[in-house]
Design goal:
This protein folds into two domains: about 1-85; about 105-270. The protein is globular. It is of the alpha/beta class. Helix 1 (about 1-20) crosses helix 2, helix 1 (about 1-20) crosses helix 5 and helix 5 runs parallel beside helix 9. About 50% of the residues lie in helices and about 15% in strands. The longest helix has about 35 residues, at about 230-265. Strands 1, 2, 3, 4, 5 and 6 form a six-stranded mixed sheet that branches.
Amino acid sequence: MIRLIELYCNVSDLYHNMLKVEVQRFSPNAFPKFTDEEIIATYFWGIRQGHLQTKAIHTYIYEHWLEWFPALPCYQEYVRRVNFLSPAFMVMADVLMDAGRSLDIIPKESLLDSFPIVLANGKRKRQAKVARECCAEGYCSSKDMHYYGAKLHMIGFRRVGALPMPEYIQVTAANVHDLTAVRNTLETTQNRTFWGDKAYIDQFLNGIMEQNSSVMLTPVKKRKGQSEWETQFSNAANTLFSSAVSRIRQPIESFFNWLEQKVSLQKASSVRSSAGLLTFIFARFAFCLLLLLGII
């Protein structure tokens, strides 16, 4: 009970200080009985209790907390209201990422990677039509999986012995290359060491980053046309370097595994619209940032 009150107070502070302007209404229903703060708080509280589908969250609040939220709308209206708040969840994620700079981060070192958001896979991926504006068919090499959906691209500050603190996220269709999604950020960031996988290898980008006193470190990729002698000669050093890079960037893979464990971010088969997809991603991501920051 106390934790729910603390959650509501934190949500209310964020809403009135930063989020309210993102979801202003100019209609006779500008001040609904069931407030936006209550929508966000109940949605997060349901996730905290392990209910990861909106239907399950609504049912849980109705059956156990209706006395606290007597104006709880019907399920259909609740879904509409949650999806309406997708811009607020996006801003909340940005605000919480900024707050994360107060943690014990390494400000000049960042890890980067992407994570699949799967709306459909297998035979269903070719028939999927949901959220065409931001989804497409793509391939996830780390999971050896063809799917229809989106990608969450993330750059996070490195933290020694801890999960990285996100500093930048972007959602793209599944067919957008990892490097394409973050190229502009990499080209304009100064005095930074980035740790990535082989998807971020690009000689032209390296030249631009060098001018900004930045560097991209990735596992070594074998050059085309390399002779067997050259391969054997450099194999030991390359293997050691690649292992070191992989070990340093392993926490961002752990971060994505943690996201999946906490909120099942990869499994978005219940999404039915573009707004629903954005809510699904950013609400869950914001919830996990609240956990990471120790706010809830």
